[in-house]
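Something for you to look into today, if you have time. Just paste the record in under my message, thanks.
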Amino acid sequence: MSHPPRGGPLGLAGCHACGKVSPETLGRCPRCGSALHIRKPQSIQRTVAFLIAAGVLYVPAMILPIMTVLEFGGSSAKTIIEGMMEFWQSGAYPIAIVIFTASILIPLVKIVALIWLCAAACGKVHPSPKILGKVYWLTELLGRWSMVDIFVVAILVAMVQLGAYMRVLPGSGALAFAGVVVLTMFAAMSFDPRLLWDRLELMEGAPPNEESPP
């Protein structure tokens, strides 16, 4: 089966900022001035580095207190898991489910999914194009909900601060969790999904846009 001409062999690159297709030899997009490259430079290496850092921060984000409640002269520190369990036991099931999904499940699933996509781009796993598309769509969908629990905690803190006998202070776990969210966002932005299709074309015997990914 014949394949349509690709931009890479023709020396054409699409701008990652505005989408304009221009000769890669220009170096800069003539429309917006962004750097031109056929594929994101060192996409796999940068993505893996961000994911490793996010994985390292994920552990303290779960075991360190995310907030400290000061009440009647005493204080109690709550981790994400303890806060979720407390809301569940008190009957606030929707809040507990939101915290579990956004704080525990989504970051972990996003890290695993991006690692799997990097492995597919490197040829370590060989899934079908449909599976690749669905997994990448899932990572894009999860990224939109990465900060839901931060908003929940912020609303709860604001509500509690209105009381005269109780205060809520952010803990070190909140900083670690914010680092996980930011690093996974950078990892998703660094990953170039076109490397997946380059790998598939290479496996099918068609020439990819440029050198095959590592």
